[in-house]
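Below is a filled-in request sheet from our internal design queue. Each sheet records the structural input a requester submitted and the sequence that came back. We keep these sheets so that new team members can see what a complete request looks like end to end.

REQUESTER: design group, bay 2
PRIORITY: normal
MODE: inverse folding
CHAIN LENGTH: 275
BACKBONE (tokenized):
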């Protein structure tokens, strides 16, 4: 037996079924109500519901363009964009709180942290981690795209002919820790003087998820002339470092002198991830 219309039912017949008339009446009533409440034909790209914040008849709630979502705004249910106030849950205290709430992040998703437990700065002049940091999920990790920086104004010296993070009487050597992807923007600088007519260099090493030794290729240097021995000089460079392993990485300033004693002061490093 074929059913050819919506909400049609096969009615029982015969004297063996008590209550036959009552069942038929009930079925006819349900059939009528459903056809009245749910139209056989609705507006394209729509859902049936009640848009107003009051009781009443249902109607089609239509989406008028791609990218819209069904949400309640100004006490009305409809399709449209999501206001910023509706995504306040993307503000978290720590990385752990974020990861517990967003268990399946999608690429491009953003989350703001008010008290990061990963981002850190070491230095004895300016080394305060920002009150809040912005993170972006790049499909692999939550990258910190807020600049993290550290500075020391303490003067230190070295005679090392290979890169070293240690200066004699140099205070706390500047270093920053944050989550990066495979690339990061690094800025570094120092003011220095030299007792010999040689080169001296400033660079950085990376530890943590990545192991990268300090090298002249990712640093900056100065060649000291005879006249330069009595002056201080500023070395500075900003570069995009590539080839990192995504994860928590620490960037630490390193120093090298070609001979004699190098004296360094006003040393600074600033790093931000590139999602």
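RETURNED SEQUENCE:
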């Amino acid at each position: 037996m074929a059913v050819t219309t919506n909400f049609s039912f096969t009615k029982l017949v015969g004297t063996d079924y008590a209550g036959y008339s009552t069942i038929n009446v009930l079925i006819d009533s349900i059939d009528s109500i459903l056809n009245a409440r749910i139209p056989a034909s609705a507006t394209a790209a729509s859902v049936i519901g009640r848009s107003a914040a009051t009781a009443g008849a249902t109607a089609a709630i239509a989406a008028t363009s791609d990218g819209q979502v069904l949400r309640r705004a100004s006490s009305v249910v409809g399709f449209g964009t999501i206001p910023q106030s509706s995504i306040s849950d993307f503000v978290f205290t720590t990385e752990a709180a974020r990861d517990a709430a967003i268990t399946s992040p999608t690429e491009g998703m953003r989350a703001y942290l008010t008290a990061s437990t990963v981002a850190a700065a070491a230095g004895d002049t300016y080394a305060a981690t920002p009150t809040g940091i912005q993170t972006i999920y790049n499909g692999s990790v939550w990258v910190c795209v807020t600049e993290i920086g550290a500075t020391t104004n303490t003067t230190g010296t070295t005679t090392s002919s290979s890169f070293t993070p240690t200066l004699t009487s140099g205070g706390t050597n500047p270093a920053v820790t944050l989550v990066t992807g495979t690339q990061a923007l690094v800025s570094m600088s120092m003011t220095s003087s030299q007792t010999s007519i040689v080169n001296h260099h400033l660079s950085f090493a990376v530890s943590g998820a990545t192991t990268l030794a300090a090298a002249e290729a990712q640093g900056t240097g100065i060649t000291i002339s005879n006249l330069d021995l009595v002056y201080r000089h500023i070395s500075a460079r900003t570069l995009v470092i590539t080839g990192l392993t995504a994860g928590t990485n620490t960037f630490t300033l390193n120093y090298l002198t070609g001979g004699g004693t190098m004296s360094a002061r006003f040393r600074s490093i600033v790093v931000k991830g590139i999602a």
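SHEET NOTES:
- Residues 89-273 form a domain with the Jelly Rolls fold (CATH 2.60.120.760).
- The longest strand covers residues 262-273.
FILED BY: M.R.
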